[in-house]
Amino acid sequence: MNTNRREFLQKSSKLAAAWTVAAVGITACSDAQTTESDSTNQGLKILILGGTSFLGPHQIKAALDRGHQISTFTRGKTKPTVHQDLFSKVESLVGDRENDLKALEGRDWDVVIDNSGRKVEWTQKTAELLKDRVGQYVYISSTGVYYPYLTENITEAQSLVLEVPDALEGEEQKLEYGYGVMKANSELVAKAVFGEERTLVVRPTYMVGPADKTNRFIHWPIRLSQGGKTLVPGKTGDPVQYVDVRDVADWMIRLIEAKTAGVFNAVGPSKTQDMYNFVEKASAAFDVETELIQIDDYDFLKENKIPYLIPWILPEGNNWGSARVNNQQAVASGLTFRPLTATLRDTHEWWFSDSVSQEQRDKVMKDANGVLMREAEVLAAWEAKQNKG
Ligand SMILES: NC(=O)c1ccc[n+]([C@@H]2O[C@H](COP(=O)([O-])OP(=O)(O)OC[C@H]3O[C@@H](n4cnc5c(N)ncnc54)[C@H](OP(=O)(O)O)[C@@H]3O)[C@@H](O)[C@H]2O)c1
Question: Is residue 57 reached through a cis peptide bond, with omega within 30 degrees of 0 on the bond before it?
């Protein structure tokens, strides 16, 4: 064994010992995790698998701000739409998780963050390749691992579905199950290869904020900035959950510095919030007159093709508990939540900036099937129904 390699393995085993202590701290006293700080936590070398889409650029900002070094590994296709200026300070490695990991061979990092995990085999291969050269594996999973969401107060200890059931009703259910099952098995693979004491799993709910390419949440910044009669789906008490992507990124980097291992639901807001309350709070981001019209008739919403308007999802069947995930462990470990108005304003500003193409905007704002285009019609039908009844 050459000296460098011996030194590295000695360093790895020391790091593993430190992670074990932090992991014990999680069960004994979560407060211990974020207060731990020693010289080894500064200037970490962090590899992000992915890093150029949504969560990645915010992790990069948080990490660079705190004096760490970043390498990203992507195919070189996706371009960031926030923090573009920071990428000149990032080492960008090119390959493909499907079949080309050469750029990762023979390299050492303190931490690898697996953002781009879309197949169990991808995580298996990168974990195997990096296990002796990297101290910690951070896997970005999802609260999708809890699908079907049949209970409330879903904690990290809930047992997970590891196989897509044979008999399923439709394509949609297969997709829902498929994503959660892939994430759950990827978590297991990461833990099996790196060991529990060197693995951190983060399970975010809907992440929202600037650079979100899913177009799921953007309805609200667009709509609430316009004011007027605004459709709010759902019954009073229908819970909603979401988390600002920047809060996840900042907190994750602190968890990494504290050498935290374990599994965490990355879920906000801090206290239970229902949909009406969410829209009320969010509307305060914009200085316009808004009248909220709550539509609390699930059948009417289904008939009018509004089974969800993220963060609200019609809470029935397999989705009943999708916004009933427990966030106590994450909050105890230091996850904090910025004001909702800041999320709304910043996302609005990003959406109407040069970083987003007119084509992308039109896709949402001129979508004949989207709620933005249909809202007036649905509200008129709702009013007519009320007047009849
Ligand atoms: N968005 C949400 O609300 C949400 C909620 C829960 C969990 N999550 C999870 O959060 C994670 C982060 O998502 P993100 O979009 O923010 O991640 P990201 O790291 O910002 O972007 C995804 C990255 O994967 C890279 N990539 C895609 N295919 C690749 C391949 N074959 N080989 C190498 N790189 C590849 C892309 O670059 P190239 O295209 O250039 O290769 C891109 O940089 C995901 O695992 C997602 O499942 C998201």
Answer: no
State whether 158 and 192 are in the same domain.
yes
Same domain, 33 and 144: yes
Cα of 74 vs centre of ligand 1, distance in Å, is 9
Pick the closest to residue 206 from 308, 281, 138 (CA basis).
Answer: 308
Q: Does residue 204's CB lie within 6 angstroms of at least one atom of ligand 1? A: yes
Instruction: State whether the beta carbon of 246 lies less than 6 angstroms from ligand 1.
Output: no
Cα(232)–Cα(27) distance, rounded to whole angstroms? Answer: 40
Ligand 1, residues 46, 115, 201: which to mutate, most atoms within 8 A of Cβ?
115
Instruction: Tell how far the Cα of 50 is from the centroid of ligand 1, in angstroms.
Output: 5
CATH number of 129's domain: 3.40.50.720
DSSP letter for 250, please. H
* Residue of the CA atom closest to atom 34 of ligand 1: 74
Lowest mean pLDDT among 18-22, 315-319, 352-356: 18-22
Do residues 11 and 108 make contact, with C-beta atoms less than 8 angstroms apart? Answer: no
Given pLDDT bands bounded at 50, 70 and 90, which one contains residue 38? very low
At 294-337, the pLDDT tens digits run 999 999 999 999 999 999 999 999 999 999 999 999 999 999 99
53-105 pLDDT tens trace: 999 999 999 999 999 999 999 999 999 999 999 999 999 999 999 999 999 99
One-letter amino acid of 268: G
Domain that holds residue 291: 219-240+272-318+340-388
pLDDT band at 40 (very low <50, low <70, confident <90, very high): low
Q: Max Cα separation, the chain?
A: 83
Q: For residue 265, give the 3-state DSSP assignment.
A: strand
Q: What percentage of the chain carries pLDDT values higher than 70?
A: 90
Q: Best of 53, 84, 114, 183 to mutate for ligand 1, by most ligand atoms within 8 A of CB? A: 53
**What average pLDDT does the segment 231-237 reach?**
98
Q: How many whole angstroms from its chain centre is CA 174?
A: 21
126 lines ligand 1 (CB under 6 A): no
How many Å lie between the centroid of ligand 1 and the Cα of residue 336? Answer: 23
Residue 335 domain-assigned (yes or no): no
